[in-house]
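We now fix the convention by which a protein and its fold are recorded. Think of the row as the fold of the chain written in a discrete alphabet. Here is one such record, which you should read through line by line.
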Amino acid sequence: MATKAYGAYAADKLLEPIGITRREPGPSDVQIDIAFCGVCHSDLHTVRSEWAGTLYPCVPGHEIVGKVSAVGAGVARFEVGDTVGVGCMVDSCQHCAACGEGLEQFCENGFTGTYNAPTPDTPGHTLGGYSQRIVVDEKFVLRIGHAPEQLAAVAPLLCAGITTYSPLRHWKVGPGKRVGIVGIGGLGHMGIKLAHAMGAHVVAFTTSESKRQDALDLGADEVVVSRDAEAMAARTGSLDFILDTVAASHDLDALTALLKRDGTLCLVGVPEHAHPSPDVSGLIFGRKAIAGSLIGGIAETQEMLDFCAEKGIVSEIELIPVEGIDRAYDRMLKSDVKYRFVIDNSSLG
């Protein structure tokens, strides 16, 4: 079916209105009329070919919230009118060990991304949420339990939310744990909210003194300006777990020094250039670990959404019309957003 979208035809072109075709819903498909789509830094990297392999035309967007407008004959979990979401994946092989364990993000044959991934559908690669509607297999559709007035701010949970929730859950963050959150941006502000809601003592780390009050308001118990050597030294060996959300190359040794014995530093940001090689002696003599984490599986993403609905957690957003996306990208590069842009998809109409 013909669908209005917004995307780019080349890396050096601004995003513009694009007419795309969505498949008619098959037996297991859910058709979603998109109300809101969050703007992820991955969108910018992909549409501007800062990561290799961008397929054009490129329609980004993998933080999708909307209403079910049609379902296939075999769909049992959703009905027309349901409020639902779609995150970073729309398919996976469904038969490897990872998929069998509900870890589709680690599919051994490669998951199908919501945009820029091979698909039988026209034009041969997936097209994302900067569009009026999307058709997705029901296995990759998520139920949204938040109030209607919160839905725009729910959209970033589909990426920023699960990217921070998954490692916090995996490393058993909760009461009695001291947890560091590095970076107070789109990911970091969600990390603070979630770790606080899980009952941990939260220490936020930022390079900017101006973000101190924001971090406290988000739920941090302490805020450390990482350029303050004395403040950093005072917290040596004090943290059980650190979630590092910074996507720029930086010194990891300064962070591993903050870990207790058996502590873990988990990275969720992919830098443009590699981090300086860490000093392994600091790891060896404290049995410490540097790890990574990638979004979350579908079951865990649903768990995250239910947790956030119960706790009243949403992202801090700025709602924009779709024609403002290039300006939003430029502002993202300057960190000029608190803390996520979300597209009002009604502006596509």
